[in-house]
Sequence to fold (168 residues):
Amino acid sequence: MSSSSLTSVGRHVLSITVDNHAGVLSRVSGLFSRRGYNIDSLSVGETENPKISRITVAVTCDDIICEQIRKQVDKLVDVRKVTELPQETGVYRELALIKISVNAYNRMDIIGIAGVFRADVVDVSPESVMLEITGDERKISALMRLMEPYGIISAARTGMTALGRGDY
Fold:
């Protein structure tokens, strides 16, 4: 039995701290595309230190490929640290804005459903309601499935961002 058959394919989340300047994100994402790795989710932003950014990348691959990716990213110039955040040691969140078609008869139903999901109504017009929701991927997908029958006009999702729990 080969060692690759002993590893399972799954979602891996990498937290990558980098120097915050032009071209760093391009080099990191370019490594993925050059190697043929598909990025499931990508988010980037400044940390508590404006000279450092955190890139959160979610990929679906086996453990061996994830380790290869981690080592290759770690070798890039301007990369300070690469950490894999396993499900049990990480807090994962995503933000979504969802614009839903409404009328006088279903507006309150939509707002009621949004309340159950702790989504905020951030814009209202005669023809639409825009919701803002923060949570894990499953929560956002569940709300979107419930809104489909009403008519989703448009949606924007940020991609996953994550931090390690406690001392991780």
